[in-house]
Amino acid sequence: MIMFNKLPYFVILQGKKYKINVDFRVMILFENKLQDKSVDKSEKIEFGLKHFYPIFSENNNYNILIQIPELYKEACEKLIWFYECGREDYHKSKGNGKGKNKQIYSYEFDDEYIYGAFYEQYGIDLLYEKMHWWKFKSLLKSLKDDTEFVKIQGYRSYTGDDKNMKELKDYWELPKPIDEQERLNKIYETLK
Fold first, then answer.
1. Angle at which helices 24-35 and 133-141 cross, to 10°
2. Mean pLDDT, to the nearest integer, of 162-191?
3. In a 3-state reduction of DSSP, which class is residue 148?
4. Using CB atoms within 10 A of its CB, is residue 149 exposed (0-12), middle (13-18) or buried (19+)?
5. Which position among 26, 27, 33, 58 has the lowest Cβ density within 10 Å, counted as fewest Cβ atoms?
6. 50, 56 Cβ separation under 8 angstroms
7. Helices (DSSP H) in the chain: which residue ranges?
8. Residue-level pLDDT at 187
9. pTM of the complete model
10. What is the DSSP letter of 58?
């Protein structure tokens, strides 16, 4: 969220104003789709554009969009701009390189902990709350260290040698993608 600016509810594409779907649930679905390795890149883009722009949710309008390269490109850029909360490299991790690309949370597997943390810290019931994506991300990033969700992220990102922390890291590890799990199962089967 670019502090002290109004949150965007529209974007300008080719000089025309378009309403956007700003609800955090839409961006969570989009992020889940982006992380799904079984989904083709073009499907991810189509999903994002159809859910972000109400006007393009209809197939006829979407088909028109993809036939106008400049409009399509700009629509994609504004979708990514919004997803990144108006900042470049917003979702990229920083650090010394050790485990910096490792996913430490999942909306799919951590939903109860995220819900609980928002309710505990902010009194916000995410089941009923209408919330802008940028506001949601700001609050998510500001959760206190004593919430279970933040503790779990800490376990998953741990890189030290403490035995107890390594056990917690293993316990809280996110499930591997299905194709990766199938590959590991074949290796385990071969080793038996």
1. 70
2. 79
3. helix
4. buried
5. 58
6. yes
7. 24-35, 41-52, 59-66, 69-83, 111-122, 133-141, 148-157, 163-172, 178-191
8. 67
9. 0.83
10. S
Q: Is 155 exposed, middle or buried (0-12, 13-18, 19+ CB in 10 A)?
A: middle
- For residue 19, pLDDT over 90 is answered with yes
Residue appearing with tokens 């209809």: 58
Residue 18 in tokens: 């378009």
Token reading at 147:
């919430």
Q: Give the pLDDT mean for 137-162.
A: 95
pLDDT tens for 43-101 read 999 999 999 999 998 878 888 888 999 999 999 999 999 999 998 766 554 444 454 56
Question: What 3-state DSSP class applies to 145?
Answer: coil
In the structure, what pLDDT confidence band is assigned to residue 188 with cuts at 50, 70 and 90? low
> What six digits make up the tokens of 136?
């949601």
d(CA 179, CA 34): 16
